[in-house]
Amino acid sequence: MTESTLFDFDQVVERRHTQSDKWEKYAGQDILPMWVADTDFRSPPAVIEALHQRVDHGVFGYGHAPEHLTQLIIERMQTRYQWTIEADWLVYLPGLVCGLNLAARALTESAQSIMTPSPIYPPFVSSAKLAERELIKAPVTLQADNRWLMDLNQAEQSITEQTKLLQFCNPLNPGGTVYRREELEAVHAFAKKHDLLVCSDEIHSDLILSPDAKHIPFASLNEDAAQRSVTLIAPSKTFNIAGLGASIAIIPNPALRARFTRTRQGIVPSLNVLAYTAAEAAYDKGQAWLDVQLDYLRGNRDYLLREINQIEGLTLHPFDATYLAWIDASALPVANPFLFFEKAGVGMSPGSDFGNSKFVRLNFGCTRALLEEAVKRIKTAVAGLN
Fold first, then answer.
1. What does CATH list as the number for 67-285?
2. CB neighbours of 118 closer than 8 A, spacing ≥ 6?
3. How far is Cα 332 from Cα 305, in angstroms, rounded to an integer?
4. Which CATH number fits the domain 3-45+287-383, given the four candidates 3.40.5.10, 1.10.10.920, 3.90.1150.10, 3.60.110.10?
5. Residue 375's closest CA among 335, 339, 346, 355?
6. What pLDDT digit, counting tens, does each position of 233-265 carry?
7. How far is CA 30 from the centre of its chain?
């Protein structure tokens, strides 16, 4: 039996009535849920088996990170990204969003501002607002090679002396761009020029779909980048274990790490023992499953690129990573593309949540059959406009 048959991504897993945010949003309605970023795939068998063993033990008290998990992360950063990290740099968190919020509060003061790309994943914006910091937006624009990148020239026009933190995202969500080394070096030069700390959300770094794209951690560029950065990673999107809550902040600078950990005290809890179990199993024995998932997602991406770009009024630019398609619907003669497609039976994420209401974000981390049905409904809805 081959790995592609052992791991069946065409298998339909019934997620209704399982307390799924994704599927229960449209409970009782004929609307396909293609929004929040979890997939409809069963997690790797090794993860499920490890969880069964832990549950069978029957005691679920307080726990701490297994040394083996820490070592797996160190080895993963070295072998995949040639980034040498140390165990002391790791701070385990019960989710990546709380890492963004901790960075906003720990690395800035009340009178200071935070710069984020725009459009961007909504918690980037809310982390500044919840911390009561001024938000400075750095526009994400389409480059000549049809890749979405943060426009540093425009960012220069809006940054102030009070801007102290850049919340960065690579791979980009939305947009799916994987930053090349020279592009990352330009971001580093910008941060160094303005003496910015950088919180780099790299949660989608294991979900690279293009063979010519390579993820490079921002902090791995050089020692200066490392010393001014907090890197956020997680197995959650990669192995579909987001509901278990396991993320990691990698913070080389001891002073920044102390500020970060002090801010979390009494507010952000440790991981639960099942989260540690799942993360360890995923990183230890999940690679074969991940390889097959990536092939499946590439097929879904390529199908979407072909089909969406044949629909008049819609554009989907090529992208390197994630299972999230950032679809430009600005040429459609509709006031609100999200509501238009929702009414047609496809529930995507509204572009307004990210910063541009003329876009929608479609989650294609699902079976091909479901994706084909979604595309069929999108085509029918657009055809009905003529």
1. 3.40.640.10
2. 125, 137, 138, 139, 140, 355
3. 17
4. 3.90.1150.10
5. 346
6. 999 999 999 999 999 999 999 999 999 999 999
7. 27
- pLDDT tens-digit map of 173-227: 999 999 999 999 999 999 999 999 999 999 999 999 999 999 999 999 999 999 9
Cα gap 268→136, rounded to integer Å: 26
Number of helices (H), then strands (E), in the chain: 15, 13
Question: CA nearest 83: which of 183, 278, 208, 216?
Answer: 216
φ, ψ at 230 (rounded to 5°): -120, 120
| Cis previous bond, 171, omega within 30 | yes
Note whether 223 and 70 are within 8 A (CB): no
- Cα 117 to Cα 147, 252, 308, 345, 370, distances in angstroms: 14, 24, 25, 31, 31
Report the predicted TM-score, pTM, of the whole model to 2 decimal places.
0.97
Only one residue has tokens 């540690």, namely 276
Tokens 């989907």 found at: 316
Tally of CB atoms within 10 A around 353: 19
